[in-house]
Amino acid sequence: xxxxxxxxxxxxxxxxxxxxxxxxxxxxxxxxxxVNDTLVQFDVAPIFINNRTMVPIRAVFEAMxxxxxxxxxxxxxxxxxxxxxxxIQLNNHSxxxxxxxxxxxxxxxxxxxxxxxxxRFISENLGLKVDWVNSTKTAFISEPSTPVNSxxxxxxxxxxxxxxxxxxxxxxxILVREHGGxxxxxxxxxxxxxxxxxxxxxxxxxxxxxxxxKIIRLNKENGVKEVLSDTAVNSFQLVNGWLYxxxxxxxxxxxxTKYNGTETMKILRxxxxxxxxxxxxxxxxxxxxxRSRLICRARIDGSEATVLTNVYGVSNASNNSLLAQNTGVSxxxxxxxxxxxxxxxxxxxxxxxxxxxxxxxxxxxxxxxSELINDKIxxxx
Length: 381
Fold this sequence. Notes:
five-stranded antiparallel beta sheet
């Protein structure tokens, strides 16, 4: 009887000690991972080990377009992406990146037939950017990207080029293309309005379908037309396999959908998403928040909205009731590059910074103080 009681007490004590450790290493369904703006679907969920976020390498690297192979004899995954070659061995702290040994602070771990590695290993050794948002337990992994033809979109996207053909929207809303070498011209479609953007074999634009302006795409070779939005659209941007767009009936909302028109979702509200007033770049959306009237940025899933500057202003979103309180300042976002946002300040006094000279300003994309770069207001940018 004493032996039985001793065994039970010992078992319970071991359970108290061991079970929390096991629970800490169980897959966490709440961890989300985005690769190049797309949520990755895992058959084995990511996990926290020793305060490190571990992610399955096959799902993550294949989402980047890499080739992932498995050598069962040496329990090693081989990842090839372009000229980069990575070898990761199960239960090993060391990995080979282009033949050079790299240490991981947590070894490659096997769970249900998948190998997981620290997400930081991916960023530090493959030249990718990895951001961790603790409040939502989300990792954003991205390769550098820029909007398609952002400068031309600021001029309503009436022209674009793929290096061989130049595409124009004529005044009568006919889309034509002209060969850069032979100057041969061809008609592609009628009823094309604006926002020409190209991706591989497709031409994306806003065109009229049954009397409503919608996002459509046209095949470059055969002119096949596909309508991608159900409702009227007044502007869109094409980034990393996604179409970001605003509804013509309510330009305070921003949506995104896959290039083929599937997986549509609402991601931001209460913003100025009228044409030429917002940007998507490197995993962030840059816009003016209509409640605070401040320039902000948010993640591509709508999370972590952050104020970038203390300049208050009245937006050009004239159909929004949130703009009833006029601060006496008017500014408009115009351009973006890898380092700065550019906006035009049209009128003067700013609530908390005194008077600012009207003109063109630039603002660091991570936020900070804006800088006047031209005291003349241009007709266009």
